[in-house]
């Protein structure tokens, strides 16, 4: 039994149509639009974090993939595997980001992964990891890493709690994920 049903776009109110726009093919949008108020709050924040981030694309994908794996998410992690490919990341890199280990990881990658683990486990980046990351990240990037990690923990809670099903055609959503850039 689905907890929160995905609405049929044909039954959207005018407000729901405006909020969802072209993203009607995403189960996530079709479920979240059950609450137009929350959709209108959460999705723009998500878009700002993911599409307009000051973090390098590679690091953004490390955070998304690792946090989603730590949270046991399937829906968003599957999407972010496709997005990672679109960013030019190799299968070895994607696998390493998800698992947190592997030969494809750089020292910088390992620092981002450490931050993800610490944020998931302790809700705080440890002092040593903070120091290493702050050598290459601006203050804005440091803050965005925390926001992004928290956002994707929230995404996992939403997709799992609302029982959001994966779209049968993963390539269809890839066309609108225009924030992917070469990592």
Q: What report would you give on this structure?
A:
With 183 residues, this protein is mainly alpha-helical. 63% of the residues lie in helices and 0% in strands. It contains ten helices and no strands. The chain has helices at 14-20, 27-32, 36-51, 57-70, 75-86, 91-99, 107-122, 127-134, 139-161, 170-174. α4 (57-70) packs parallel to α9 (139-161). The longest helix is centred in the last third of the chain and has 23 residues, at 139-161. The protein starts with 13 loop residues before the first helix and ends in a 9-residue tail after the last helix. The model has no long low-confidence stretch (mean pLDDT 92).
Core attributes:
63% helix, 183 residues, mainly alpha, globular
In percent, how helical is the residue content? Answer: 55-70%
Based on DSSP secondary structure assignment, what is the total number of beta strands? 0
Outline the low-pLDDT stretches. Answer: none
- Distance between the terminal alpha carbons, to the nearest Å? 39 Å
**For the residues shown, what is the average pLDDT?**
92
SS class: mainly alpha
What's the main sheet like? none
Order of helices and strands: HHHHHHHHHH
Q: What Rg, in angstroms, do the CA atoms define?
A: 17 Å
Strand content: under 5%
Characterize the quaternary organization of these chains.
single chain
The total count of helices amounts to 10
Shape descriptor = globular
């Amino acid at each position: 039994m689905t907890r929160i049903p995905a609405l049929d776009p044909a039954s959207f109110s005018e407000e729901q149509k405006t909020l969802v726009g072209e993203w009607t093919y995403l189960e996530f949008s079709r479920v979240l639009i059950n609450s137009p108020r929350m959709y209108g709050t959460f999705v723009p924040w998500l878009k700002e974090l993911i599409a307009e981030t000051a973090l390098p694309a590679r690091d953004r994908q490390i955070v998304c993939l690792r946090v989603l794996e730590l949270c046991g998410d399937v829906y968003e992690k599957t999407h972010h595997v496709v997005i990672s490919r679109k960013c030019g990341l190799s299968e070895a890199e994607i696998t390493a980001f998800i698992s947190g280990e592997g030969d494809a990881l750089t020292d910088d990658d390992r620092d981002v992964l450490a931050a993800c683990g610490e944020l998931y486990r302790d809700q705080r980046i440890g002092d040593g990891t903070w120091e290493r990351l702050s050598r290459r990240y601006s203050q804005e990037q440091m803050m965005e890493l925390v926001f992004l990690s928290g956002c994707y923990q929230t995404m996992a809670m939403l997709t799992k709690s609302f029982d959001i099903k994966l779209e049968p055609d993963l390539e269809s959503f890839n066309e609108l994920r225009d924030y992917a850039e070469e990592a």
